[in-house]
Design a protein that fits this description.
The protein has helices at 3-6, 39-45, 76-84, and strands spanning 20-24, 36-37, 54-58, 68-71, 73-74, 88-91. By secondary structure, the protein is an alpha/beta fold. The longest helix is centred in the last third of the chain and has 9 residues, at 76-84. The model has no long low-confidence stretch (mean pLDDT 92).
């Protein structure tokens, strides 16, 4: 039997897949109130190691400070929590 029929199939790899850095709302509490947070601010704070295709903000945790966040994607709960704390979310 030929080799390509003897080896197992391993699925599909999408070459157009986008890799996002994941952050939670509770990670934003370490910044000063009314700070402008973007990819460079997250990198300097050590929350992300390298900037991939974008940053996605998830709604885990609570935020107590109003901040302005400029990111690529945001979940609905994260946006609600930031706006409830007096902050603002800007999508790039």
């Amino acid at each position: 039997m030929p080799l390509h029929r003897r080896l197992p199939k391993r699925g599909f790899t999408n070459i157009f897949r986008k890799e996002y850095n994941i952050l939670n709302v509770e990670d934003l509490n370490r910044f000063e109130p009314d700070a402008l947070l973007d990819a460079e601010a997250f990198k300097q704070a050590g929350l992300i190691k390298k900037i991939m295709d974008g940053i996605k903000l998830l709604g885990t945790g609570e935020i107590t400070r109003p901040v302005v966040v400029r990111i690529h994607k945001v979940s609905k709960t994260a946006k609600e929590k930031i706006e409830a704390a007096g902050g603002k979310v800007e999508l790039i």
